[in-house]
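hi! just following up on the protien thing from before. the input was this:
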Amino acid sequence: MQVIIGTKIGMTQIIGEDGIVTPVTILQAGPATVTQIKTVETDGYNAVQLGFGQSKNLSKSVSAHVKKAGKDLSPKVLKEFRVEKEPEVKVGDILTVESFNLGDKVTVTGTSKGKGFAGTVKRWNFNESRNTHGFKGNIRRVGSIGSMYPQKVFKGKKMPGRMGHDKVTVKNLEVAYIDKENNILGLKGAIPGPKKGIVTVEGKE
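and the predicted 3d structure came back as:
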């Protein structure tokens, strides 16, 4: 099955045999260990749970949960992937980039970069106010947000606030590079998140 968890290393470019330069994002994809199998009979749906990375401080509940997959297993990340059919893998199996092929289309999900508290100009691409004679100079402030009716601010109004650090999914990215020995996966284009950020990769089977 074409699912894997990885970390973002960074971006680079590769030159094909035809001389075309392709921008790619390099991922340290796997190895990921199957920690749980869910089926329609037991859980109401089919899914596979994978563990990735090494954690120094693993809670007792998580340690007992992953004990069936391996004695020395201490995953930093646990992710669940829903599948249509009952999975063919079993608890303890290790998934690597070998299940992917060049040219495959994949879906990548990650957490975008956090920008902190941002105003409306940066967060929502608002225009600045006029900066003419007699103006106080607060050209980036929101201005009036209320109205005579209904004497309140509607929920969801575009205002200053936390920007970024959201779950972002990018579909139909092409696998452009595979290094099976080092578990390196190269995807054409950009993916969300900073370097060392955790991402999930799902193929179309």
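Residues 116-164 form a domain with the Ribosomal protein L3; domain 3 fold (CATH 4.10.960.10).
The two ends are 7 Å apart (CA to CA).
cheers
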